[in-house]
Specification:
The complex is a heterodimer of chains A (410) and B (519). Chain A is built from 15 helices and 14 strands. With 410 residues, chain A is of the alpha/beta class. Chain A has three domains: 84 residues, Ribosomal Protein S5, domain 2, CATH 3.30.230; 240 residues, Alpha-Beta Barrel (TIM Barrel), CATH 3.20.20; 66 residues, no CATH class. Chain A has an eight-stranded parallel β-sheet with strand order 11-10-9-8-7-6-5-12. A four-stranded mixed β-sheet of chain A has the order 1-2-4-3, with helices on one face. Chain A has a two-stranded antiparallel ribbon with strand order 13-14. Chain B is built from 15 helices and 29 strands. In chain B, a hairpin with a 5-residue loop joins strand 1 and strand 2. The two termini of chain B are 19 Å apart. The chains are: A alpha/beta (410), B alpha/beta (519). Chains A and B meet through helix 1 of A and helix 8 of B.
């Protein structure tokens, strides 16, 4: 590495909560920091001392640091400077901000995944409040939303975000890149309590196995005793054809998602709102996922201004058998969450079925009947699932059975 | 050395004299009760005015000269042309060319289009501004460059100062979208229609001399008149009083920011679940993106429940007009129209009523419209652990906004301040506000994207919100979360020199702004 100057981060009239840092290595005169910041009066000293600490950590004694700050939080400034350092100095060291206690949770394989919100991995302004929008999952994306020359700095930013941003219980997900770059991504994010890794453009089971093995290896080395779940994304005709073997490639796979932008491109057809062109692929993916006992998840809906069509799309998606959908804007989250949640009619019907089943069981009857209709065990199981979900979403009281019977007695 | 100061009832150090005049330190809310009569302007005699009622003179300069413009006078203007104002700057150009010095400019608000007056502050034409200070003007003042001390008042406080003689207006230059030769004037009609000129009434009644400037002169009578011709000395007709697209925005917009929408949703949900929202409520919300979003969510709730708001107090926007037209609001009482839909509505809908702030906000009125309001949605640059609010300075100490009607609105039954917990790393909830503009005892609820803080004085609200599932937290918890995320900010460094005084609605001095140390 003979380079002496590196620039990282973002600046410009529209950039918020970020900074651009230019680091120039020098041979004498110590560290000079040139700070331009809208929060200089409030945080000028703390920004400078953060940078000095970081340079000292990497044993850099002489350098010029030019910072153009638009209100970046400390973990962002640290990520930008560390990325610049790594571009100029060979070092295995990582300057890790504190891991928030709130961020140490793990998630269940079966947990609800109605909505998962994509966040561009190199855009801090969108990350800071992401956890407040009630998405089931937050995806820090290192793949398509990050320009190739920004992959390195995005990794460091995402790593710091995983440690410093409270996502309020959302499943902590990272979408890695394809191939070698993706494997390199894992080294940066797995040690920081990632709950789930999204594997893009999956076309065969090997892609999953390589990622799974690498994660296992990293966890073993760092003595991490938590399962990192996997969600392969199917984005091509070949992927669709191989979807069942992909779904069963690892026991850590909990869900499989559809990526329709790339899929329709692969087919060479435009993506339409009705989605006739992808109906076969989507149902095929659903069946593969169900057959492998994992959750099938639908593609994102890309018109963030059209909530009505999104609502219709969600209902169709749910009717096909999907159990969740990606979001590219926080305002899509409530629409998707409400869409996938059981509605009043479903809940009422399920209540009746479960009550009838309980009554039959108490009487020792082998056959459950509701009116003139016989109810099969799978119907009861599905009704119970709906009830559980409704309770979890707060749409039904925990003691609904009691409430239902007391209402009857009134 | 700075001036001698005393601690006022809010614990702030304030001077006893500003711009050479004695002032009264804040005594507590509702404590200050001036005695005696209201100020009265000189007695005119009608025979001194043209018997044919034609008061039109050739130009603004002629009018100013006839009004006896000279050094040291106080000149008032209103802000209904907003950022499209073409007249205010011209007054000082004329004054400057006449060699007049040391004027006091007393606008009801200033806008970026008024930044050129900085050169008249520099050349001594203007001694000081008593009004709002935005953008570059605010910086100019904060850096101690203005000769006199700025005085910031609320819209109601401005009327109070006029009525009790604290400010004596020598010449009021009132632009009017439509006027007649006698001086009757209104906010509608013509090419510069702004809907309402609700801030002009007090100036026209109490100034020694009144000039109407219009670009739409019509025959007598200009009706319904918001300014009455019998208060007016001269009428000036000019090509253009304002730039139409800057007078009112084409359309005001609900925020698109998902974070602000979240705050708005939480606010509407709070209003519903706390029981504040009910049939027949009265409400006021501003024209900011978040306020508009709250109005939209509240309107939804009213519609679903079949409820109706008795009346709303403007600044009006198309969202208020929609509520009026669709039956969620009985009337709009309006001091200013913010967008074209609102202007059209004032012109055409008899239930959309021009209502001067003179009646709504004034400390010397016999009653207070704002104390009759149930819900008041306000903004703030900072709120502190005692629920005190700041609207004029930022945490970096720079003066950047006016008070507007904010202080007056604090008298509503439920004052709700929806704000982000921090703006680009700048915490909004702080230990102590940089500048005190509103005492915490009047501020009831702070709603942020990370939780709702209810003033402990509002035990009723704390009780009614129990079990609602809303994220209620203490203000201290919110402040600590902001600091955890942003870091603890340094305090800006001030000199002793006082650059601006913050008046309370009763004319007493609530706080001061000091010169920033610049290095």
């Amino acid at each position: 590495m003979n380079k002496k100057i590196a620039t990282t981060g973002n600046a410009g009239p529209k950039v918020r909560s970020d900074c651009e840092i230019t680091l120039e290595l020098k041979t004498r005169r110590g560290v000079v920091i040139d700070l331009t910041s809208k929060v200089k009066a409030l945080y000028g000293e703390s920004i400078k001392s953060l940078c000095l600490g970081l340079l000292k950590f990497f044993k850099i004694r002489d350098a010029e640091v030019k910072i153009n700050d638009s209100g970046a939080l400390p973990f962002v400034i640290a990520a930008r400077l560390e990325a610049a350092i790594h571009m100029l100095v060979v070092s295995d060291r990582e300057f890790l901000p504190e891991m928030l206690r709130e961020n140490r949770y793990s998630t269940d394989a079966e947990r609800q995944r109605f909505s998962r919100l994509y966040l561009p991995g190199n855009m801090p302004s969108m990350m800071i409040n992401a956890g407040l929008h009630s998405a089931d999952g937050i995806i820090l994306d290192l793949e398509d939303s990050v320009a190739p020359e920004k992959k390195n700095e995005a990794r460091i930013l995402v790593r710091n975000a995983l440690r410093q941003i409270d996502f309020h219980g959302a499943e902590r997900m990272v979408r890695i890149n394809q191939g070698e770059t993706g494997i390199e991504d894992l080294h940066h994010v797995i040690p920081h309590n990632v709950n789930l890794i999204l594997i893009p453009k999956c076309e065969n089971r090997n892609q999953v196995i390589i990622v799974d093995k690498k994660i296992e290896e990293i966890c073993k080395k760092l003595k991490i005793n938590k399962t990192v779940f996997l969600m392969p994304i199917i984005e091509s005709a070949l992927g669709v054809e191989n979807s069942f073997e992909i779904a069963r490639a690892s026991e850590n796979i909990v869900a499989m998602a559809m990526g329709l932008e790339d899929f329709t491109a692969d087919l060479g057809v435009p993506r339409t709102t009705e989605g006739k062109e992808s109906l076969y692929a989507r149902t095929r993916l659903i069946i593969a996922a169900k057959a492998a006992s994992i959750q099938p998840i639908d593609s994102v809906f890309s018109d963030v201004g059209d909530m009505e069509t999104l609502r219709q799309n969600v209902l169709e998606s749910k009717a096909l058998g999907f159990e969740g959908m990606g979001c590219i804007h926080p305002r899509q989250v409530p629409v998707i969450n409400q869409g996938f949640a059981p509605d009043e009619t479903e809940i009422e019907k399920s209540k009746k079925i479960v009550i009838a089943y309980e009554a039959a069981r108490e009487k020792g009857l082998g056959v459950v009947a509701m009116g003139s209709k016989m109810i099969d065990p799978p119907v009861v199981a599905r009704a119970q699932k709906t009830i559980d979900l409704a309770v979890r979403l707060g749409k039904l009281a925990q003691n609904w059975v009691k409430e239902a019977s007391s209402e009857k007695n009134k | 050395m700075g001036p001698k100061t005393v601690k006022n009832a809010a614990g702030r150090l304030v001077p006893l004299e500003i711009n050479g005049e004695p002032v009264i330190p804040f005594k507590g809310i509702g404590k200050h009760r001036p005695q005696g009569g209201k100020y009265s302007p000189p007695v005119p005699t009608c025979s001194d005015y043209p018997s044919d009622g034609n008061k039109v003179v050739k130009s603004l300069e002629v009018a100013l000269r006839k009004c006896g413009l000279r050094s040291g006078m106080t000149i008032s203007t209103h802000h209904h042309m907003r950022d499209g104002d073409l007249i205010s700057n011209k007054i000082f150009e004329i004054a400057s060319s006449m060699g007049v010095k040391n004027l006091v400019w007393f606008p009801s608000a200033s806008f970026p289009c008024n930044d050129p007056v900085i050169k008249f502050l520099e050349d001594g034409t203007i001694n000081r501004i008593e009004g709002s200070m935005n953008g570059p003007l605010g910086r100019f003042v904060s850096e101690g460059k203005m000769k006199g001390t700025a005085v910031l008042r609320s819209h109601g406080g401005r009327v109070q100062a006029i009525q009790d003689g604290e400010v004596k207006i020598d010449i009021a230059v009132m632009v009017a979208p439509t006027a007649d030769p006698f001086g009757n004037a209104k906010g509608t009609g013509g090419k510069s229609s702004c809907g309402v000129i609700g801030y002009a009434k007090a100036d026209s009644m109490y100034a020694s001399r009144v000039i109407i400037v219009t670009d739409n002169l019509i025959d007598v009578p200009c009706y319904p008149m918001e300014i009455e011709g019998n208060y007016v000395d001269f009428v000036v007709v000019t090509d253009k009083i304002g730039i139409p697209e800057k007078i009112v925005s084409g359309t005001t917009q609900v925020t698109k920011s998902p974070d602000r929408l979240l705050i708005a949703e939480l606010t509407a949900s709070f209003l519903e679940k706390s029981g504040i929202l009910r049939d027949g409520i009265t409400m006021q919300a501003g024209a900011g993106g978040t306020s508009l979003a709250i109005a939209v969510f509240v309107s939804e709730i009213l519609k679903n429940k079949g409820w109706k708001s008795k009346f709303g107090f403007g600044g009006s926007t198309k969202y208020m007009v929609e509520m009026l037209e669709e039956g969620q609001m009985g009337y709009i009482l309006d001091a200013q129209a913010f967008d074209l839909d609102a202007v059209k509505s004032v012109e055409n809908n008899p239930e959309h009523i021009p209502y001067p702030v003179f009646n709504a906000y004034n400390y010397h009125s016999k009653g207070n419209l704002t104390s009759m309001m149930d819900i008041m949605i306000l903004g703030a640059t900072e709120v502190d652990l005692n629920f005190n609010g700041n609207v004029v300075t930022h945490s970096d100490g720079y003066l950047l906004h006016g008070i507007g009607g904010w202080q007056n609105c604090l008298h509503a039954r439920n004052v709700i301040i929806p704000v982000p917990l921090f703006r680009d790393r700048i915490p909004v909830i702080v230990d102590e506000v940089t500048t005190l503009c509103g005492p915490g005892e009047l501020i009831d609820v702070i709603i942020t994207e990370r939780g709702i803080a209810i003033n402990p004085l509002r035990k009723d609200l704390l009780k009614s919100i129990k079990g609602s599932g809303l994220p209620v937290r203490t203000i201290k918890e919110l402040k600590e979360e902001a600091e955890r995320i942003c870091g603890k900010p340094q305090k800006p460094q001030f000199d002793e020199k006082i650059v601006a005084a913050i008046k309370w609605v009763d004319g007493t001095v609530l706080d001061v702004v000091r010169k920033l140390k610049t290095n």
